[in-house]
Amino acid sequence: DDGEEELVEPPKRTNKLFTVCSFILVVEMCERLCYYTLQGSQRNFLEDAGGQGEDRGMQASTAFSVSACWSMLSYLSCMLGGYLADNRLGRYRTILYFAAVYVLGVLIVACSAIPDLMESSFGVPLYLLGAFVFVALGTGAIKPNVMNFGADQYDTEDPEEEVQQKAFFSYFYLTINVGVVFAMGFTVNLATSGSSTASAGTGYFKSYCIAAGAMLMALICFALGTPRYTGKDRVTRRPMASVLWQHMRHAAKKSLAGKLCVLAWALIPTYMAIVLTGSLLGSIAWLSSTLTWLGMGLAFLSCALLISLHQRSDFLEPLPPQAEATQAITTADVRGAFNCVPTIICINVGFNIPYNAMNNAYPAQACQMDTRLLGQQLNGSFFSLGDAFAIILLVPIYEKLLFPALRRYYGHPLSRTTKYVVGFSLAIAANLSAAIIEHIRRSKSTGSAPDFVLCPQELIGTASCRDGFLLSKCSPGASIPMTRMSAFWTAIPMFLTGAGEILVNPVVYQYVFEQAPAPLRSLVQALNLVAAGSISNAITAALSPLVPENLNDGHLVYFYYINCIVALIALLLFLSLKESTAAPPAQREGSVRASLLASTDRSASLVAVPASRVVSLIAN
């Protein structure tokens, strides 16, 4: 009444983390739960399915190889997911459509685990259809896009939303860990809980039904959030791959180096197809072995050519004027992208070959040790939690204590190369420690008086025991006795692997972000994933003949030694390279925080992430 205007406080804004991005975080949590449930039990399923009795299933080396090939395909399909999101469907529709594909795949996998069907000749083919076609496509399309789509919901020009976006990245990491811990701590153990020499039991079916239910819940939650999302129809058409191909084809017409370049890149899908074929033909031992070794030879040849040719990509000449004029990407950009390849190959392939032992070799070793906890047998994959524990424990120690102390002592941050060397050393130490553990375990398991775990009184006369010894439920056919040595010893190589992973994976992600030309950064980052997950697993699959059916009858240590040799050669090769681009001498000390995403889930990485978003991951 007195003419004064009443001041009205602006309405309190809601946090998009809870009102919008919670729907997206559910997708990531459930997808990780599902993926690691399958990965952690896949080798066991393949060894248990397709028959009855203890002679059922694939041989251990074949199951090992097939499992590595599944990881190879899952990472390779990330290229498809990134392409569809950027050029065809947009991130929203890519996630929605392929989450449905993922659900279908896990439902097929669950059906293959129905006991009667699992024991039939249809069990394994049905499982391979669900896992290798539908799940591999689904996970590859979802993983590169979920984090980015969630980050897209925030307006980084708004200071309040920029702060919320940083919180989103932390919660994204948390949901990854929730999914991983639930899978490795519960569903993977449930899968082999009913296995015995008589049958595989119902554990796989129960476990995969939980995984399918989780993925169905993810799809429903994501769809329910549709009205709240922004940028659902955003598509950025980027002819990146075609520009690279045009330059390679032009170079092939001009020089021998250009022809070898085309050959080296063409060998990648070739040797992956050969290794996959060899793995699936495991029943024909000589043919399978020949194909897998041939595939590994071609993989090493391809890597050697790529490293040699792309130290300097000067053989890539400018396109003819009429072609160059239509492209926003220059020849200098193309050369800069290819110049990243030697480091990507040396670091990613060299590190991830010993890293991959965590997926199959370490769990197989644990399965012939005493896996019991509180009277219940655990699956060997349970001990992979040692890797996650290392990441959770050591990231703050590295970032808050170790790196600042070393910076004060030396007067500058640790160089990227130093972190690579230490990370590789830890991965090699992990394999060597596993070899030492295996030497001790095997010495206790052979001879006239093997030191096996005695069968508990209540299980004597059941299919869980033989000759007075307790059989491991996660060994091939649940038919091998457990050595009287705690499987928790395998947490040592798992922990060392995680400690090294923090120093390598996020660091090479940052290298690509800083060195790759901006117009081609997302494509080079996708290649980074292919090298880490696909090329390395193709080589790991080819090494499967070194994994014996019964570790007491063979020498698993040879597998570990070869891993160490390959890693050492790759590291020395990297150190000998003449860098074709001027890399920054030191990495920002806070960049290890990128491992919160990169180390636990390499494929939920920085493919097609805008610069501002990567900086918020790396520098804050």
Give the tally of structural domains: 2
Encode the helix/strand succession as letters: HHHHHHHHHHHHHHHEEHHEEHHHHH
CATH topology of the largest domain: Growth Hormone, Chain: A
Q: State the name of the first-level CATH class of the largest domain.
A: Mainly Alpha
Helix content bin: 55-70%
CATH architectural grouping of the largest domain: Up-down Bundle
CATH superfamily of the largest domain: MFS general substrate transporter like domains
Determine the structural class based on helices, strands and strand pairing. mainly alpha
Through-space gap between termini: 51 Å
Molecular structure report:
This protein is an all-alpha fold and 620 residues long. The protein folds into 2 domains: 16-230 and 329-618, Growth Hormone, Chain: A; 240-293 and 295-324, no CATH class. The chain is built from 22 helices and 4 strands. It has helices at residues 16-19, 21-48, 60-88, 90-112, 115-118, 123-152, 159-191, 203-224, 240-254, 256-280, 285-309, 321-324, 331-339, 341-355, 361-366, 385-410, 416-445, 491-515, 521-542, 557-576, 595-598, 611-618; strands spanning 372-373, 376-377, 465-466, 469-470. A two-stranded antiparallel sheet has the order 1-2. It has a two-stranded antiparallel ribbon with strand order 3-4. A hairpin with a 2-residue loop joins β1 and β2. The termini are far apart.
